[in-house]
C-alpha cells in the first residue's frame, strides 16, 4: 500500500478550558460517531463524574445520540 493512500483522522477530547484529555487516531473511513463512542468509553474508564458532553456537528446522528442516552456499564473494580 502506498504511503499517500494511508489517511488518518485525529479525534481529540478536551476539558472546558481546552486541556487535552484523550487523542485517538482513526482511519478516515471510520464514522465520527463511532470514533466518539470509543473516546467517551475511554473517558469513562478513568473519569466517572462527567455531567455534560459538548460536540461539534460532525458527531451528530441517531446512532451516537441513542448510544449516549443508555448508561455505560463499567466493570466493577472492587470499589
What are the low-pLDDT stretches, counting only 5+ consecutive residues below 50?
none
Helical stretch tally: 2
Please state the average pLDDT score: 79
- State the total count of DSSP E strands: 2
Number of domains: 1
The strand order across the widest sheet is 1-2
Q: Sum up the overall morphology in one term.
A: globular
Note the gap between the termini. 47 Å
Q: Mind describing the biggest β-sheet? A: 2 strands, antiparallel
Output the helix-strand order: EEHH
The oligomerization state is single chain
As a percent range, the share of strand residues is: 15-25%
Which radius of gyration do the C-alpha atoms yield?
Answer: 14 Å
Helix content: 25-40%
> In terms of structural class, how would the helical and strand content be classed?
alpha+beta
Structural summary, described in words:
The chain is an alpha+beta fold. It has one domain. Helices cover 25% and strands 19% of the residues. It has 2 helices and 2 strands; from the N terminus they run E-E-H-H. It has helices at 32-44, 62-68; strands at 8-14, 20-27. It has a two-stranded antiparallel ribbon. Helix 1 packs parallel to helix 2 (62-68). The relative contact order is 0.15.
Attribute tags:
two-stranded antiparallel ribbon; 79 residues; alpha+beta
Amino acid at each position: 500500500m502506498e504511503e499517500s493512500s494511508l489517511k488518518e483522522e485525529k479525534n481529540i477530547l478536551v476539558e472546558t478550558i481546552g486541556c487535552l484529555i484523550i487523542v485517538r487516531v482513526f482511519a478516515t473511513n471510520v464514522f465520527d460517531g463511532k470514533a466518539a463512542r470509543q473516546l467517551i468509553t475511554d473517558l469513562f474508564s478513568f473519569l466517572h463524574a462527567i455531567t455534560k458532553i459538548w460536540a461539534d456537528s460532525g458527531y451528530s446522528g441517531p446512532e451516537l445520540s441513542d448510544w449516549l442516552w443508555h448508561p455505560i456499564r463499567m466493570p466493577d473494580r472492587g470499589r
